[in-house]
Inverse folding.
């Protein structure tokens, strides 16, 4: 076991190996992992689900499950050994030395307590101060994490806060005792682009101002590239590559790292000109320890030598990074892997684009949807009109609370509109079975959409039976098999319960179930946001294949602008319940665009990582219960014209080619203003 090498080393993980015990058998999940994080440094840990990232984080916190065991190695926090430390020391170190922010803040906050009280308890416990001093400290910390009205936030319960606000509360609680190490486990998954950018701004500022070190776990490589100084790529419990983020994420020296980057829809890529390349195959099952390189079975350039002994991390020639690949210093071999993501046969499309019909499959006309809560009426969707055509993918973007999911559920018939109309397949009134046959919806979290007690065959079979009442038992079984094959499920998967499937496989089941009635329209609400980049690529390719095969129309909701740009034929933007812009995808991302769209584009993690300047919103999002007069965006708009925007509802400007946006600034003037910004190109 190695000792700390410098006084600036906050965390030192040495030769760490961890197993889980299942039925008296020890199953190795982390093997011989080594890395160090220094004061003020952000270290990114990336890799597919199940590779051991969160297990390492829990080991650092000494929060491993009861069936986990540390087989060997050392975890030193500010020079003190964590493994085997006394319980009293661990309690003292948590928060004063190390704190953790989890992926889902809603499940980490007590729903019965106001958030101010929860934060004040941290000061009471660790600093042994009075309630008055603890409350004052809580207010000061809420100001530090940039709440617009911290006194009001103190009095709110978790359910009264947005996802981004909940995450700020969690960061405030984690930083209450100025820990030397902050662990962030997927802290921005599910957040929209602007809130995600604000959270990352906050983390960067805190690292800079108080010298905290950070262990950042994420599957979003653009975020890791933006935030982290160094990165470790974990595969099957071992580090495959490690080094400066700029090197590892730009010129990777391991085929697995290249595969992760190949899976991402880079900004500007579209489904008609580039097919994503998921990493073939699956990682080794938990507990399986290959005799050679664990990635060899999925690697395009593996040799016989890769199968005999596990490679070790070694320096890469002409670089500062380390790689566990025997061919790390062979540029031609690594280029062979990278080239697989290039467009096939030159610059032409990789497949025949879907022909988009002029026929409208969904027509939303002046729809209004209201909710009442605590005696207050909220208008979640306000006089919105939108058309979805046969064979078209319409991307829908906007901040949390903008009305995207409410609109989607109103279209799907899960909510009844309070005004206006929704015509599906030309008919406003349809029976529930007719609507379900014509239109289906896929939700973000398949765990809440699939009955955990039913095997996959029954989940699909019940839907086939309901939506195809005329089929015989044999025909229903044959259709279940066809659906499973269409979403790349094996027949062996049909006998499994959802709990035995990975997140990607569960989402395939959910997508497959949506196709049991041969729908013409599928509404997809964040169907891939929580998936690994390779699994996400598989799901996106699957959606494109099904669209081309069946001529489907999709309403695709996502906060990942790169994914929306890749998949969509048109893009619609919502803000505070209103449609503020809609147009062809290729036109939508170029000036002129609505100032809110301009903000969203500048907040894209890939754009920020590339060094493009970001436009920050002014102030918090207004309440749906009392939206601003005139232009709803004027209170936060970087291009506000003052009284005109405040007092007068803006018109829909026609920018040509079916592109419209709601603003007082005409297309020529707005294009000139936005083209002067570096990211406008």
């Amino acid at each position: 076991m190695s000792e700390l090498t410098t006084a600036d080393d906050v965390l030192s993980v040495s030769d760490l190996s961890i197993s889980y015990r299942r039925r008296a058998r020890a199953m190795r999940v982390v093997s011989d992992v080594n890395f160090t994080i220094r004061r003020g440094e952000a270290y990114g840990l990336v890799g597919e689900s199940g590779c051991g990232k969160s297990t390492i984080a829990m080991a650092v916190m000494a929060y491993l499950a009861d069936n986990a065991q540390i087989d060997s190695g050392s975890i030193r926090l500010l020079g003190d050994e964590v493994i085997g430390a006394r319980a009293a020391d661990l309690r003292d170190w948590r928060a004063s030395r190390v704190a953790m922010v989890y992926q889902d803040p809603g499940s980490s906050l007590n729903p019965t307590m106001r958030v101010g009280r929860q934060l004040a308890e941290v000061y009471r416990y660790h600093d042994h101060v009075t309630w008055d001093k603890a409350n004052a400290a809580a207010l000061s910390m809420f100001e530090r994490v940039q709440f617009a009205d911290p006194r009001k936030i103190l009095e709110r319960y978790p359910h009264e806060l947005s996802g981004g606000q909940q995450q700020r509360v969690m960061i405030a609680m984690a930083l209450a005792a100025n820990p030397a190490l902050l662990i962030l486990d997927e802290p921005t998954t599910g957040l929209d682009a602007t809130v995600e950018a604000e959270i990352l701004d906050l983390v960067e500022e805190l690292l800079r101002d108080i010298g905290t070190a950070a262990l950042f776990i994420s599957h979003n490589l653009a975020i890791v590239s933006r935030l982290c100084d160094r990165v470790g790529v974990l595969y099957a419990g071992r580090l495959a590559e490690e080094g400066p983020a700029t090197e590892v994420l730009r010129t990777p020296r391991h085929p697995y790292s290249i595969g992760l980057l190949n899976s991402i829809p880079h900004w500007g890529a579209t489904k008609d000109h580039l097919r994503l390349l998921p990493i073939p195959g699956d990682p080794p099952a938990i507990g399986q320890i290959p005799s050679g390189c664990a990635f060899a079975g999925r690697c395009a350039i593996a040799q016989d030598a890769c199968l005999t002994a596990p490679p070790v991390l070694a320096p890469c020639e002409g670089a500062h990074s380390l790689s566990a690949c025997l061919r790390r210093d062979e540029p031609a071999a690594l280029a062979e892997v990278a080239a697989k993501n290039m467009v096939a046969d030159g610059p032409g499309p990789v497949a025949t684009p879907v022909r988009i019909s002029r026929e409208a499959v969904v027509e939303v006309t002046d729809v209004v949807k209201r909710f009442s809560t605590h005696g207050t009426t909220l208008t979640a969707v306000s006089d919105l009109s939108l058309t979805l055509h046969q064979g078209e993918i319409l991307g829908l973007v906007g901040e949390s609370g903008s009305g995207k999911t409410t609109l989607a559920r109103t279209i799907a018939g899960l909510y009844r509109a309070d005004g206006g109309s929704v015509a599906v397949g030309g008919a406003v009134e349809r029976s529930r079975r007719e609507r379900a046959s014509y239109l289906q919806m896929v939700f973000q979290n398949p765990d809440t959409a699939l009955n955990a007690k039913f095997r996959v065959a029954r989940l699909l079979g019940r839907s086939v039976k309901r939506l195809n009442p005329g089929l015989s038992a044999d025909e229903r079984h044959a259709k279940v098999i066809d659906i499973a094959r269409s979403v790349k499920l094996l027949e062996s998967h049909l006998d499994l319960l959802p709990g035995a499937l990975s997140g990607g496989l569960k989402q395939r089941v959910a997508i497959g179930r949506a196709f049991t009635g041969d729908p013409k329209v599928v509404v997809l609400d964040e169907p891939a946001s929580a998936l690994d980049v390779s699994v996400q690529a598989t799901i996106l390719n699957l959606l494109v294949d099904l669209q081309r095969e069946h001529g489907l129309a999709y309403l695709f909701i996502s906060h990942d602008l790169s994914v929306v740009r890749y998949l969509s034929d048109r893009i619609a933007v919502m803000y505070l319940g209103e449609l503020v812009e809609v147009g062809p995808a290729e036109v939508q991302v170029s000036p002129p665009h609505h100032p809110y769209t301009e903000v969203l584009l500048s907040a894209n993690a890939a754009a920020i990582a590339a060094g493009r300047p970001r436009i920050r919103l002014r102030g918090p999002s207004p309440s749906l219960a009392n939206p601003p007069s005139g232009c709803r965006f004027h209170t936060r708009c970087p291009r506000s014209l003052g009284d005109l925007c405040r007092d007068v509802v803006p018109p829909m400007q026609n920018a040509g080619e079916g592109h419209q946006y709601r603003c007082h600034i005409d297309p020529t003037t707005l294009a000139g203003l936005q083209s002067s910004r570096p990211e406008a190109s």
